Amino acid sequence: MNPFALSFLILGLGLIGWLTARARALRFDRGGAKRLHSLPAQHGWFVGMWTILPPLLFLVVWSGISPGLVRQTVLQSPVAAGLSDFAFERDSVLAQARAVAKNPYETEADPLARQLAPVVRDASRRYAWTGTAAAVLLAFAGAAFALSRIRADFRARSKVERTLMMGLLVASLIAIFTTIGIFVSLFWESLRFFQQVPITQFLFGTHWSPQVIDAKDPGASLGAVPLFWGTFLIGAVIAMLVAIPFGLMSAVYLTQYASPTTRRWMKPTLEMLAGVPTVVYGYFAALTVAPAVRRLAVLLGDPFASSESALAAGLVMGVMIIPFVSSMADDSLAAVPTSMRDGSLAMGATTSETITRVLVPAALPGVVAGVLLAVSRAIGETMIVVMAASGAATITLNPLQSATTVTKQIVDLLTGEAEFDSPKTLAAFALGLTLFVITLLLNIVALRVVKKYREAYE
User: Is the CA virtual torsion 346, 352, 357, 362 positive or negative?
Assistant: First the structure.
């Protein structure tokens, strides 16, 4: 059965179980012999969860097991006797057989794969129906077990709340373990890189040229300081010079000067910038901003200026992260107690003086947290720098010159044709680990600032 159809079937059985349990609990309630411990709907949720969760968990596990069972069945068939003993060739033929099984009109396929396709198709159908039958049986068994527990004194509410709490705990653990998994995978590959390149050469070297690597001293061409400087210049200097003033001023206007009607339509419009895909910002930077920046450089006396400049990427990146700064500053200013603002105005201060001397200093921890989160977002941006920044790793203070970032180099290193075990490819993981640690530290600092801010005004 189609997985979507099976899911809808299980959800339908869960709805039937919910209605049945609710009706039974209502019947107990109307009997008047005992007062129900839990609401009828909570009895329904208890039965619904027992009807839905076990088969869905089984299907998740089965989806990971069944391909191996299908593969084992195909390999044991007489038709598979002609398969090669080499694992790569065998896997290639099996992959083609699966493609032919799904699409009989597939033209590019090995003759042996066409012979194996019916075997693959039959085995897939057999195990699919086996999983479907087992899931439906589990749904009925779970519903029967849960319905047998329905009584007037049954603590359905506690069971449902405990299950929901466990679900929330699992969701939190998934996020935590995902972060740990990302770190471990980056750390493992970075460890292989640092076995070939000393970490001091990588972190403090000033020459980055992965295209030409000396086999005897690969670290001489893999100094990452130019990349860190370009990332800092584009993401933390130019972008912040755009985002902080405009974001803070827009937050001040929306909270202190704008009428409720203006705020109602202007704030969502501003926050829409955060929902624009970064590739759109990249096109805007490459096709509009970068040529304008080059014309500016020519007017300033640089006839050989490149359109791939740090200023072009940084300006567009700053526009992209304005909503991050503005939203956090808006919330921080709105959280300042009204008594502080009213007291300042009552003492004769003007609105602008109240904002600059009372509200902004009081909301500064929240504003700083928003800026730090925006910086971590900016230095991890990829599409804008790929499309608007250069690949030249230089250390320069001139924003009109070419510069590159860590993310741009990661894309270049992983899309090349170098071997995976080469220092050039493994350098991408070392850069990723460094960027991960930097953004993690920025987020930790921002969260600590936010915590301090909340303790002050909640």
Answer: positive
Task: Measure Cα distances from 271 to 89, 251, 252, 316, 321 in Å.
Answer: 52, 11, 15, 16, 10
**Interatomic CA distance for residues 299 and 297, integer angstroms:** 5
Contacts of 27-32 with CB under 8 Å at 24 or more apart are 28/150, 28/151, 28/152, 29/152, 31/152
| Rounded-to-integer distance, Cα 86 and Cα 73, Å | 19
**Structural tokens at position 317:** 């990146």
Instruction: Return all residues near 340 (Cβ < 8 A) that are at least 6 apart.
Output: 358, 359, 362
How many whole angstroms separate alpha carbon 241 and alpha carbon 406?
20
- Over the stretch 216-232, which tens digit does the pLDDT of each residue have? 777 778 888 888 998 88
Is residue 154 within 8 A of residue 37, CB to CB? The reply is yes
Please write the tens of the pLDDT for every residue from 63-119: 889 888 888 888 888 777 766 666 667 777 778 888 878 877 766 667 777 788 888
| Burial category of 346 from C-beta neighbours within 10 Å (exposed 0-12, middle 13-18, buried 19 and up) | exposed
Q: How many residues does the chain have?
A: 458
CA distance 299 to 290: 14
Give ∠ CA 341-342-343 in degrees, rounded to 5: 90
Helix (H, G, I), strand (E, B) or coil at 222: strand
How many CB atoms are located within 10 Å of the residue 133 CB?
11
What whole-number distance in Å separates Cα of residue 397 and Cα of residue 380?
A: 21
Calculate the CA 275 to chain-centre distance. 14
Does 452 or 181 have the greater pLDDT score? 181
Cβ–Cβ under 8 Å, residues 374 and 243:
yes
> CA of 335: how far to CAs of 59, 381, 455, 457, in Å?
47, 30, 12, 7
Torsion of CA 335, 341, 343, 348, to 10 degrees: 170
The pLDDT value recorded for residue 134 is 92
Using CA atoms, how far apart are residues 120 and 116, in angstroms rounded to an integer?
6
Q: Sign (positive/negative) of CA torsion 237, 243, 246, 252?
A: negative
* Mean of pLDDT values over 236-251: 90
